[in-house]
């Protein structure tokens, strides 16, 4: 069962990352202006922010399987319409407002489904995991995210190397649809596995029945600061590399792609080490991960050596790997079993918030000083880290 949840998460995120290498190029061919492309991406993130908690609650009500399958099939259909609108826009000789707004609307609708499968998969994993293994099992889903970050751009680049920018969209639509249908038969019927009822009775930590607590707020705040850095780097890296290493736009794009692969590989390897060797509890992962993440971010701003920039992304990948995994596990342990879907949705909200705020805030600061956004992100992360320690220190450690 856990392997199936791993693949559900992997396929869902691959649906996002496979098309990333060609999205800007294909949007430009569709006569979209840079600010329109930014609005389109932000609308998708805004939809993720709004609907992540809704899908979490629906997974509590309808069942995890139903929501996972709905998310994958919803994304598949969304990519079909995305492709249609892009083709119509590219075939026109000039920008057509109807098609531009249509692309924005489709991206928003796709955003509704982007966090659906991962949210329900996290809740499902919490259902079938013991308290002692919660951090390790959640790390496996984090490894799926890291693997998607590595494989997605590579697959997308290979598919588009033939010159057809639509190939990543075709493959993504088919992949999501096929795995969505397969999971109808692979996942057990119902909200939880047969053994989860016993697991919840034996292992669920006794917590306040209220969903939102100060401890949960601490986890979400520090998680949000981590996602600010991860999302912000996706947008700012190529711009920063271009200025620091004095590269052309094309060269900086290739360098940024390499750095993202390094970051993704380290994120994934960190999850593997956590699962098979460290097996740390959630809070320890966060306590260790955030300082490593901040150290990598500050090293990035302090050096113009390419070798040390790679080292900084290694540290960022390690810190983000520990932090992202611990966020899902730690947040799930602050609530009772009936709220696992809701808390998974709340965790997914951090990605939506970062997707909206980080690009807008980061680019504005970048125009003032190219290092300023990294300093601000690091400062916010340190502040969140202190708040996290304060809000969780009075809670009994929820691990064996």
TrEMBL record:
Membrane topology field: Multi-pass membrane protein
Domain (Major facilitator superfamily (MFS) profile): residue spans on this chain: 1-396
Top-level taxon of the source organism: Bacteria
Cellular location(s): Cell membrane
Keyword Transmembrane helix: yes
CDD domains from the UniProt entry: MFS_MdtG_SLC18_like
Transmembrane spans: 35-55, 67-86, 98-117, 138-159, 165-187, 211-236, 256-278, 285-302, 308-331, 343-366, 372-391
Transport keyword on record: yes
GO terms, molecular function: transmembrane transporter activity
Keywords assigned by UniProt, alphabetized: Membrane, Transmembrane, Transmembrane helix, Transport
GO cellular component terms listed in the entry, alphabetical order: plasma membrane
InterPro entries given in the database record: MFS, MFS_dom, MFS_trans_sf, Tet-R_TetA/multi-R_MdtG-like
Protein name, UniProt field: MFS transporter
